[in-house]
């Protein structure tokens, strides 16, 4: 959630947290309807050690439920970095409730024993993850925990024309969407926010991307505008200089 949260001091962490609250207007959202998944930049886990101090500090600032039910949709948070899986039983086969697993690190992007454990024990219909900063989707076998398909269409220009995916519910197959970053600091060309829509009958769900304007395109546009303006100023100055010199030379002569 915060790019420098893992190694920030307590004062810096508090300042980053206040900025985060102001950007996303957290005071206007109920705390029990917001799920915060800690990442490696928050508590470590990739290039830094995960410590109890970092984890406790994150929980104090970003308190959110591990399991949250919203109508017929159940959100469950797992932590691949700390290998935390809530003790939940699989949903009944005929239940139209949709179980959504939220993980900072992708589960099917790099199949592992942890991913297989989550799929086999929890049998989720949906997995939402992040970490890679780019949009992608995977499908996996719930029985074996193996990855079945991979689609990284965010690298394709068609993703900007058809940024919507529709998934049919299955008791034997799960789908994972890797959410892209919404921060310009991550150094990727495509950024945006994702919206997931769930069918009340639990038969299908859709995921739609709301792309943000490209930072690189904006910078190139600004550079072109600045170049044109600078060229116009130079041309104007060059055109006015001969006129001024002729005016000075003509005014130096007197009529006798």
TrEMBL record:
InterPro entries linked: Metallo-depent_PP-like, PGAP5/Cdc1/Ted1
The entry's keywords: Membrane, Transmembrane, Transmembrane helix
PANTHER family: METALLO PHOSPHOESTERASE RELATED, METALLOPHOSPHOESTERASE, ISOFORM E
TM stretches of this protein: 219-240
Cellular component, GO annotation: endoplasmic reticulum; membrane
GO biological process: GPI anchor biosynthetic process
Organism per entry: Cuerna arida
SUPFAM superfamilies with a match to the protein in the record: Metallo-dependent phosphatases
Protein name according to UniProt: Calcineurin-like phosphoesterase domain-containing protein
